[in-house]
Amino acid sequence: MFLEMAKNDCAQFSVPNLTGEQTAEFLRKMLLIRVTELKIEELYHLDEMKTPVHLSLGEEAVSAGVCMHLRTEDAVFSNHRSHAHYLAKGGNLGAMIAELYCRETGCSSGRGGSMHLVAKEVGHWGSSAIVAGATPHAVGAALAFQMQKKDSIAVVFLGDGACQQGVFYESMGWAALKKVPVVFVIENNFYSVNSHLSVREANEYLYKRARAFDIPSCRVDGMNPLDVYASAAQAVSHARSGKGPFVLEYVVQRWRMHVGPGDASAQLYRMPEEFTKGYRRDPIEEFIAHVLKEGLLDSSRVQEIRTRVDRDVGEAFVFAQNSPLPDARDLTKYLFVE
Amino acid sequence: MPWTKLQVESEEPEFDENAGDNARKLDFEKALFEALDQSLEYDPRVFAMGQGINDPQGMFGTTTGLFKKYGLERVFDTPLNEEAAIGIALGAAMAGMRPIVIHNRPDFLLMAMDQIVNHAAKWSYMFAGQVPLPVMIRACVCRGWGSAAQHSQALHGLFHHVPGLKIALPATAYDAKGLFISGVADNNPVLFFEHRWLYKHQSCVPEHMYAIPFGEAAVKREGSDVTIVAVSHMVIESLRAADELAADGIEVEVIDPRTIRPLDIETILASVKKTGRLIVADLAWTTGGFAAEVIAQVTERAFHDLTCAPKRVALPDLPTPAGYTLEQAFYLGAKDIKEAVLEVIRTKKVS
Fold this sequence. Notes:
Structural class of chain B: alpha/beta
Radius of gyration of chain B: 20 Å
Largest sheet of chain A: 5 strands, parallel
Radius of gyration of chain A: 19 Å
Distance between the termini of chain A: 55 Å
Order of helices and strands of chain B: HEHEHHEHEHHHEHEHEEEEHEEHEHEHH
Largest sheet of chain B: 7 strands, mixed
Strand content of chain B: 15-25%
Structural class of chain A: alpha/beta
Strand order of the largest sheet of chain A: 1-2-3-7-6
Oligomer: heterodimer
Number of helices of chain B: 15
Largest interface: A-B, 41 and 42 residues
């Protein structure tokens, strides 16, 4: 029943025409998220990253695919599971890892931790760990862009849990009313911590909620990078051309537990169908198989991208580990902006 | 509504005499209107929104008709989404705007606690000062005419507990305009609490834009016998009490902190050093409130300057009753302040 539900209603898209460069960049973004998260997981037991980490392993295609269509001036808003959004938008990798190590060189100078990343220079103005908390921020930024007569757009990433909070509906209402350029990106991994969506909602098709506000919306297979890319192109161009908000629901698989590495208690909370053969999919491997088959990239280019990402991630960890910790004398710094 | 005429006050206390050459006598509400008008005119990044902001009544006359001058893009009515409204203001501020959000009552801000406490108050610290949130949130404390428990709460104490917010409570027209402009100019989230009964009060207000810095208390009346720290409408009540007490030869000093965060504790300490006696008159409940905080700070820092126990003149720890006889028993004013002063005067000094 659950597998059926997850497959149902996904909109169909034709295969997007990606150039070689776009393909390489899309792959690089996904791999950057994957390799970074795996490295965090590998080193987490050392207890040097003293901050709760919410891993996006398995969900890489959504952040990467959506951000492929964004410009530096566009804004993204994110939540507790924030690494992927930050990296996909182009946030500095070293500054993110340093933040996980709570260093002064971290993107939030060690004041935010893993759930509160910021990369102002690329339109990432801070993520909230209150799941729907950043949703109105995106609408506000989009409203500002409209007032400023800019053609920038705002994108907010939110989970299926956030879709249960009232402010999500308030935000959709405003977005529709003011017709602001915002895209709501729902990453539906079906779990709020360990509670499955089916025990939390009578109607699991989250995208349908946008209909009450006359906001166009669709459900997309978020494990298929090509569908993610194609659907995001549609939503972003809708918002950017002044037609108002768009809601995208991506059905994704959260490979790890809610917080931290691994998924030790998977047997105790996951749906039985999830352990059947063929359930688990890997968006990156699917994408690589596609691009090799279509000749968009050759295997040496793919390897080159992997090598570069591995090197970047390695360097970022070295940078973080060798960075200074915040000075306790600066405890009260930053309560207010000057 | 009949109560608007009955319960507003128009007696002008004597203060703000040195407001400047081009100052006129202005209503508190007109001073706020002028401050908003000038802020909108001064900076195209400023916009104002709120439920009912463009009603003919115009938020007690503080916004009336401004949408005609600045357009509906900059002065607009909103859905009844208190939480989203604040969140949207924060998002717009991140994108470079300077929003002013107007709520009719502090009671409604409780709907937006997540955005105010979890977001607005945290953004500067959490992101090491990189993302300023120049947002001002206005709300008007109501009193009387059976407004009852959900339309009359003075909640500044609740927000006062939270680091990362600035809180202003003007008592005079002059302060209202100057603090408003400071609030709009500030790069941090500001809560601006008005009081319904102050709107018809007049004082001298300069025509030009001026800012009253946050964290600077005003000594509204000088005296040597007792220090009264009062906020918002309680400043007016304290000045009335002071007038009556002066007739009996008791000179009280009335200090209006004007902003409770930041709080100008130094001015209060200096006054207590002189008088040795402290009363705090607040609009809100007694327990765990602003009055308690002032007394705690003074006791910690200047215990030996106190010659007797400090006193709070603050509301009983109860929801506001609707019935007018009960309301009368619930609210405090000049009479209660006067009694408190007489009580501390009678108290034998600790030697």
